[in-house]
Amino acid sequence: MSRRFVVGLTTIITLGAVWYLVMMPLGLVSPGRFPSPDDVWFSFRQVAFTGYANGLLYQHALQSLRLVVFGFFVAAGTGVPLGLLMGWSRRAEALINPVFLLIRPIPPLAWIPLAILWLGIGDAAKVMVIWFAAFVPSVINSFTGVRTIEPYVIEAARMLGTPRYRFVAEVLIPAAAPLIFTGLRLSLQASWTTLVAAELVGALYGLGRVLNVAQQDIYPGMIFIGMACVAIFGWAMTRLLAEVEARALPWIQMARAS
Amino acid sequence: MAAITFDAVRKAFGGKIGFVALKCVDLAIADQEFVAIVGPSGCGKTTSLRLVAGFEFPTAGSVKVDGRRVSGPGPDRAVVFQQFALFPWKTVFDNIALGLRNKGIAKAERNSRVAKAITLMNLEGYEAAFPHQLSGGMQQRVAIARAYVLDPDVLLMDEPFGSLDAQTRTTMQEELVRLARLIPRTVLFVTHAVEEAVYLADRVAIMTRRPGRIKEVIDIRSVRVAEKWDQHERIEDVMDLESFIHWRTHIWRSLREEKSAQER
Amino acid sequence: MIVDLSRPLTRIEAAAYGTVGVLLFLGIWSLLSLSGAAPREFLPTPYQVATRFGQLLSTQFAGATLPQHLVSSIMRFAYGFLLGAAVGIPLGLLMGWFRVLDEIVSPVFDAFRFIAPIAWVPFAALWFGTGIGGPILIIFAGAFPPCLINSYRGARFVSRPLIEAAQMLGTRNLHIILEVLLPASTASIVAGLRVSAGLGWQSLIGAELIVASTGVGFMMVQAQLNIATATVMSAMVAVGIVGFLIDAGLRWIEAAVRRRGFA
């Protein structure tokens, strides 16, 4: 066990103990404002087994997750090819970049009111906002991924007489892959953050909805649960993507090491 | 096999930093001849190679391979890059095989050719390795195997041993000589290391400083044959010979003139 | 084979393509609006949006003019952002230097890090009501992590010879932090500030959508409820412009830092 692990664990346990002590016997903080460990446990049992905000925990989580996954794939599926195209073709870049630069400064969350206006508070509006949030990092990183390919790699491919389709599949994309994955990671994080925000503003189901209702009910324990779920799922998705990256690009670990 | 001709070649690069890389290059390389170009840095020797490779085009004059103007890169003029330029995501085998796949060669034939190239370059056992698992010398061997397997008309080598440490460099030079005697083809070899050029080449072309043109061409082959350099297996034995030293020094002096003119 | 990548476009060519792109975009937008493919209330023409934007500069909507709303928003942003930097940068540097501090703080930080800033809204509302503390908490949640991470990385990965040289010259701990780590990390810190500002500005807008009674986000929500689409879009443009200016300012600082030779 490394020292780092031990110290870390001790810190967490200490904080946990402080939390418990402050809330329970000492009653230093008003229970209406801040959840005690008991409150949290109670809330968890409620939302997981009885239901809260019109659904059980797994239902809310599933709703949020499926929207994120769908939105993410649509955004990445459009963003990565566009970024690759803009990286490869100076003409495409010159044509699209100005429009892209106009749209880009608008923060994704700022699209929420417009999305609600156009599409209501259902799934479609959420996907639209996620798309705006997740699209940009995918484009930018795929673009940079192509632009930072060393010229001699491209020249070697040309010298070998590589036809276009094979060039894209076996040279361009693998060469840009590390940065493409960076873009995917940022896109996924943006998707998740944006979805939670969109659900907080207006939704019928989902983790954001749970947070929203808990806020209106002034229910700190449930707020805590909601936040914890947001954090856990956010972390889990990032880990999953990292695993996919490690499998897809086995050579990158060695490349990074050397 | 094919011959290479540079005919009054001029190459200027435009844009914000406009400069003339090559002033007027005339050079004829015969079929199966091994020609090295040496010159001070920035003189345009790499540019000359890139013109034959088809990555650049002359501003005036013509570069012809086998009588036809060069119109773009291709496997008939295989290139070995200084940076190796292997694809890090492909195994050694796949790196070597790509050119053959592009030519549409059938799998069985392909596998046998790649296997032969691997044996030729002493890479047995490393077929499934990735480039980053190999040393610099081995990576360059893969690059040479990749070039050889194409059975190219012309082999273009751009300071191929420049990134290697001194010991590996000598080993590779010996191997290249062995290879060149075994499977002769037209080779254009760019280097700034004079000893390397004298050791490897049939003729050595000395390029002036930028804007470059060919200052002098020295026929090493006749000397090598007359003085029986090939009898000596080891490079240090060849480099010890008087004839070798004489021509090496001659070329050094010629380059030094260029360098001091450049500095003035 | 595509040779496009090897040939950069001339300035004029690039400008021409760019103009065509923008015109196409505006054209398609206008067409969709004018043809009635989308109902007029939901998709005003670019011209209508521009006009509305101009109006909002002096006319009130949801209690204040656009510039007044912007000022409220920017003030909140500034407080939250500066707080995030003021806490994050020193803490990051200290963590980069004192390993123990790193070991204590990191697990806590990592646990909180994955909570999307916007998820703090309910607690912010609970603790601060509609006071300014709420948005500041949320902006802080967004702005703090990049500041911490970047200054930590900057300090942690300062080249060893630099530190050893300082130690050889007899520099003590606190001074090492101020005179070696801080200058050497400047580039990383400024890069972190840029990310921080972006996240902070975005968090602010998100917060204002839910728990504010003034500000651009609040304005957008009110406009949405009233189906005043042109107003929503004008507010989005304003948010984009401010965000762009903040980023441009920090980019300028980044370049200035680089020019002065800080890493």
What does this protein structure show overall?
The complex is a heterotrimer of chains A (258), B (264) and C (263). Chain A folds into 2 domains: 1-30; 34-257, Orthogonal Bundle (MetI-like fold). Chain A is an all-alpha fold and 258 residues long. Chain A has helices at 3-23, 37-50, 57-88, 90-103, 112-119, 123-147, 151-159, 164-201, 207-217, 220-248, 250-257. With 264 residues, chain B is α/β, with parallel strands linked by helices. Chain B folds into 2 domains: 4-76 and 154-263, Rossmann fold (3-Layer(aba) Sandwich); 84-151, no CATH class. Helices cover 39% and strands 22% of the residues of chain B. In chain B, α3 (107-120) packs across α4 (136-148) and α6 (194-200) packs across α9. Chain B is globular. Chain C folds into 2 domains: 4-43; 53-259, MetI-like (MetI-like fold). Chain C has helices at residues 11-34, 46-56, 66-97, 99-113, 121-128, 133-156, 160-168, 173-211, 216-225, 229-259. In chain C, α3 (66-97) runs antiparallel to α4 (99-113), α3 runs parallel beside α6 (133-156) and α8 (173-211) runs antiparallel to α10. At the A-C interface, α1, α4, α5, α7 and α8 of A face α1, α4, α5, α8 and α9 of C.
CATH superfamily of the largest domain in chain B: P-loop containing nucleotide triphosphate hydrolases
Oligomeric state of the chains? heterotrimer
CATH architectural arrangement of the largest domain in chain A: Orthogonal Bundle
- Can you tell me the number of structural domains of chain A? 2
Which ranges of chain B are low-confidence, i.e. pLDDT below 50, for 5 or more consecutive residues?
none
- CATH classification, class level of the largest domain in chain A: Mainly Alpha
Largest sheet of chain A: none
Name the beta content range of chain B.
15-25%
Average pLDDT for all residues of chain A:
89
Main CATH class of the largest domain in chain B: Alpha Beta
Mean pLDDT of chain B: 91
Rg on CA atoms of chain B, Å: 18 Å
CATH topology of the largest domain in chain B: Rossmann fold
Please identify which CATH superfamily of the largest domain in chain A we are dealing with.
MetI-like
